[in-house]
Amino acid sequence: MSSLVAAAVEGVRHLARHPLRSALAALTCAVAIAVTVNVVSLSYGMDADLRRDIARFGRLTVDVGRTPVVRPGAPRASFGEAELATVRATVAGLDAIVVPLRSERVTVTGAVEVRQMVLAAVGVGFPRTLAIGLKAGRFLREDDRGLAACVLDESSAKSLFPGVAPADVVGRTVRLSTAGTPSVAVVGVLEDPMTYRALFEAFDEGRGARTLISALLSFRNVYVPEDGIASKELTTVSVVLPDEARLDVAFERLTRLWPAAGVDADPASLAPINVFARKAWMDAFGGSTQTGAFLGNLVWILVCLVACVMVSTLNLVEIRERYDELAIRRCEGARRRDVVAQVAVEGLVTSVVGGLAGLPLGFVGADVLARIVQFPFRFDVRFAGVAVLVSVVIGLLSSAIPARRAAALDPAAVLSRRLS
Q: Which residue of 52, 92, 121, 278 is 20 to 30 Å from 363, comparing CA positions?
């Protein structure tokens, strides 16, 4: 044990005797760890955030509405009280909550004017279709009628009242571009379920042309009581089930009435009414985020492999220059494992120091990138542990080949070559 400790001490001394070479090797590891910190915090952090956001969209909900794609010139399908009654009868006995929704585009004015916001007339059971809490105030009640009260999505509140806290928005009024341009009191603000709203909207240039249903899911709405919109035509009917077993039963029953068609189906063959299970969409989206995290893993693994090759190359070149030194150590009584221990400690110490230096470098890099491209980075203590572990692995791998080469030296051959 004492000989191994002596070899380790000698390895540390050698690093101190060659500061520039040691610093370059450590810098290589630091850059690899900084990239690891950034990529892991981005891929895993965003994956976790998106999964959490998607889980709030109401997994146990089935939506029924008009088919968005129709044959040109075809009459618009009727979707009103008769279809609502059909939905209620179809899911009877499943303990389902049926929530009808009517919507229209309006111009809304608060402290500023915001065009093309969605006015959604909903019942008091609407919050059950989502797993979203209130940011401030309350939701609509049974005694709310007409356009006397409304609830805003958090994003709508920020657009209408820039710089005003949600709690201070409650009690203010907004004006709608409907008949009589009524003033409606804000009684509550719903939380925004979209963590990366600003980022995604920057790439969503066509959001003004989306359908009403898509606009509703963008969560920039004004919610009013069911009688707040005079039209009897429904935008969608949401059916909330108590568990996944009954969700599957309800979806099967509804699709018997309005069969689903393939993506490439002829518009003329599409059913006028579409049945959509949010669970399927959420599972598909979750698979996409998992793929993104996997691609992020490939990036940092490749970067670490490149760093490992570079550090191994530096170590091999250094070992070749140190043949005489290591041969003399062998002649002084050092065993092969002592030489292996010395070289391994040199590589391990260099990589660990570089890895620890790479953590703050990664934080600084993430902050700079966030300021330049407005991209959110989320870091966790577990990611720091992963980065340090990767640094140790780089040190061990990059020392393995040089250590074997150093241990295989024949002191007599090395020194005789020098004398000749």
A: 52
